[in-house]
Structure formats: structure tokens, C-alpha cells
């Protein structure tokens, strides 16, 4: 077993005297009953309204269904859809009995035209039944940290115990966007693919009008039922900063998102912390190499609000040394960023490459 001894390296830029409120005076007026705006990298909340209030979330549910489908692998093997699963009300990707599809096609059918048939077919393919798939959804939600969510349907059609919160759905979206297949699909205004019996080419169009309405929009998902009202989750990127916005029960959701995203981009800017390279190297015992280089997801570039950079405190927590063998991607340490004594972000440090045991030869 690999042994790790820990040491803390503290880099203090300046003491912090800054506190941020999510209810700032310049926050926009919106129609949504529940809303949240977060920074995708750090997960910091920039705006919130009833963000932990449980509500129906309609077809934004399909973010979870799609994520589970993509994480299951084997995305391009063809199979025949379950004939009963596709018999459902509401929006559809046009599946009929006997259709030949792939998991990737079902993911496209969920994220673009919001096909309830695609969601049900996915649930049966992955879990064998809708209740069993709901269990998968809720287990994954727990792993993500969605503490006020209960999934009951794969499509987002109303269920007695089917609900989430704006904040939980933001956490889900942040996790989903880390999946490159998810990010690619949800960012497209339309996709041409083949399915059917026999499969033939057809083009599916995205219900997310924000992709063409808002400069920098990169997704994510619309939703609507009479019970839930209009629901929308968007993500947008400008100057290297990515924001995630969630509104539930929002009659004017397109404008809500435009206002909130503009609000967030005015507040955030990427900064390079400029850590010493020695903070990302650790001594190695039992290998041919003397040191191990560590890497991170951000490489020391993080989004901060106006005036925060000069008040930022950084702690690099690295081992005193590590024992070989080490595998690329092993978590070796972490970096903590805080403002005014409050942790705003912790990122992991990983081994940049494999280290084999020195056998003495």
C-alpha cells in the first residue's frame, strides 16, 4: 500500500476582508420562483432565489438520464428499443416499435427534442424497469451531493415524489458538463443521425432557443409540464469563465437567463494565481525519479469576483513524500482557495504520470 505523509504549504497573498452576498443590490429582477447562478469551476453561488425549495423540474430531469446513459458506455452498439417503453405521452424523438437505435442516439433524442420515448427506452435498456432506473438516478444524485432531490421518472413527467431544487440541478449540470459527450450534444442546435427500422438519416432540433439567443451559450436543457411550469438550465462561456444558470417555474425564462448570465459575467474574471512550480512537485521514495510532478484541473487559473484577487489566500497541501508505485491520475494533494477565511474552492492535485518501483536493475 502506498504511504503518504502530509505537509501543508501556505501561500498567503493578502489577508481577506471580503464577504459576498448572493442577494447583492444590483441583482436582476426575474420571473422565476426558484433560481440559482453558479460558477462552473468553483461551484460558487453568485445569485440565489429559493434555491433549496423543492419543486418539480420537468424535462431537465433528462440531464440525469442522459448522464447515466453516457456513463454506461458502449454508446454506438445498435439494439431494438423496448416496444412498451416508447409508448408515452409528451415530447418525442419519434421512436416506433421495432426501431433500431444506439445509446448515443437516445442521448441526442433526450437532450435536443426532449424525447420522453428516448428517456423511457434508456431506462429499460440500462436498468430493466422504470423503478430500478429511478434507484440508479437517486444513487447517482447522492454521489453528486444532491441532498433535496428525489427522482421517480426518467423523462421528467410528473410523479408523486419527483422533485429537486434549483441548487441541486445546478450541481447535476456541473457534473454532467464534465462529460465531453454530454457537453458536445447539448451544445448543438441540431444533430443529424440515423435510427429506425431500417435506420435512416433524420435531423433532430434543440428546444433550447438560448443557444442562438445568447452569445456564448453552450447548453443545456429545457423543461415544461403544467405542474412544473417553464424550467430551464443553461450554461454559457465567456473569456474562459463558465456559468451555470437554473430557473424553475419561470414564465419569462429566456429573459431571466439573459439577465442572470450578464450579471454573473460582470462579476467574474479568470486570474492566474501563479503558484511556484515547486508547490506541484513532491519527493518520491522507491522510484528511479527523485520527484513527482503534480497537475490540477485549473493549473492555477480560477475565476474570482472584482477585488478578490488581492485578498486571496491559497493553501497547497502536498505530501512530504510518496512511495512508488504511483499511477497517473492518483490523487496526491489539493489546493485550497479562501477569501475572508471562507473556502471558495478546493481542487485536487493528481499524479501527472506513472511511477514504477525501482527494482534495482
Structural account:
The chain has a 5-stranded mixed barrel with strand order 12-13-17-16-15. Strands 3-2-10-9-8 form a 5-stranded antiparallel sheet, with helices on both faces. The protein is globular, with a radius of gyration of 23 Å. It contains 8 helices and 17 strands. The chain has 361 residues and is α+β, with helices and mostly antiparallel strands. It has helices at residues 62-71, 103-111, 116-127, 130-144, 166-176, 180-186, 210-213, 253-267, and strands at residues 4-12, 34-39, 45-49, 79-80, 100-101, 190-196, 199-205, 217-225, 229-238, 241-248, 268-272, 281-285, 291-296, 301-305, 312-323, 331-339, 342-351. The two termini are 22 Å apart. Strand 16 and strand 17 (342-351) form a beta hairpin. The longest helix is centred in the middle third of the chain and has 15 residues, at 130-144. It folds into 2 domains: 4-17 and 272-351, Peptidoglycan synthesis regulatory factor (PBP3), Domain 2; 34-251, Beta-lactamase (3-Layer(aba) Sandwich), CATH 3.40.710. Helix content is 23%, strand content 32%.
Amino acid at each position: 500500500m502506498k504511504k503518504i505523509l502530509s505537509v501543508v504549504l501556505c501561500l498567503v497573498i493578502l489577508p481577506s476582508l471580503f464577504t459576498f452576498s448572493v442577494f447583492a443590490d444590483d441583482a436582476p429582477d426575474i420571473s422565476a420562483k426558484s433560481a440559482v447562478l453558479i460558477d462552473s469551476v468553483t461551484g460558487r453561488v453568485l445569485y440565489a432565489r429559493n434555491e433549496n425549495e423543492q419543486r418539480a423540474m420537468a424535462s431537465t430531469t433528462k440531464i440525469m438520464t442522459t448522464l447515466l446513459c453516457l456513463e454506461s458506455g458502449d454508446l454506438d452498439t445498435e439494439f431494438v428499443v423496448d416496444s412498451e417503453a416508447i409508448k408515452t405521452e409528451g415530447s418525442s424523438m419519434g421512436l416506433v416499435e421495432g426501431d433500431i437505435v444506439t445509446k448515443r442516439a437516445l442521448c441526442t433524442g433526450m437532450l435536443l427534442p426532449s424525447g420522453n420515448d428516448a428517456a423511457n427506452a434508456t431506462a429499460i435498456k440500462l436498468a430493466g424497469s422504470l423503478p430500478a432506473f429511478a434507484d440508479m438516478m437517486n444513487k447517482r444524485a447522492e454521489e453528486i451531493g444532491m441532498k433535496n432531490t428525489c427522482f421517480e421518472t426518467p423523462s421528467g413527467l410528473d410523479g408523486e415524489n419527483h422533485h429537486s431544487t434549483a441548487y441541486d440541478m445546478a450541481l447535476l449540470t456541473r457534473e454532467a458538463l464534465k462529460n465531453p459527450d454530454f457537453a458536445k450534444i447539448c451544445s448543438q442546435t441540431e444533430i443529424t443521425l440515423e435510427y429506425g427500422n431500417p435506420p435512416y438519416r433524420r435531423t433532430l432540433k434543440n428546444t433550447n432557443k438560448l443557444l442562438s439567443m445568447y452569445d456564448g451559450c453552450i447548453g443545456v436543457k429545457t423543461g415544461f409540464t403544467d405542474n412544473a411550469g417553464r424550467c430551464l438550465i443553461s450554461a454559457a462561456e465567456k473569456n474562459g469563465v463558465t456559468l451555470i444558470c437554473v430557473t424553475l417555474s419561470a414564465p419569462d425564462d429566456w429573459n431571466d437567463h439573459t439577465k442572470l448570465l450578464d450579471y454573473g459575467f460582470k462579476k467574474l474574471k479568470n486570474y492566474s494565481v501563479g503558484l511556484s512550480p515547486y508547490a506541484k512537485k513532491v519527493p518520491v521514495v522507491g522510484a528511479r525519479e527523485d520527484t513527482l510532478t503534480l497537475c490540477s484541473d485549473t493549473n492555477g487559473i480560477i475565476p474570482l469576483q472584482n477585488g478578490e484577487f488581492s485578498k486571496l489566500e491559497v493553501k497547497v497541501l502536498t505530501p512530504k513524500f510518496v512511495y512508488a508505485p504511483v499511477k497517473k491520475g492518483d490523487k496526491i494533494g489539493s489546493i485550497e482557495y479562501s477569501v475572508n477565511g471562507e473556502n471558495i474552492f478546493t481542487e485536487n492535485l493528481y499524479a501527472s504520470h506513472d511511477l514504477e518501483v525501482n527494482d534495482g536493475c
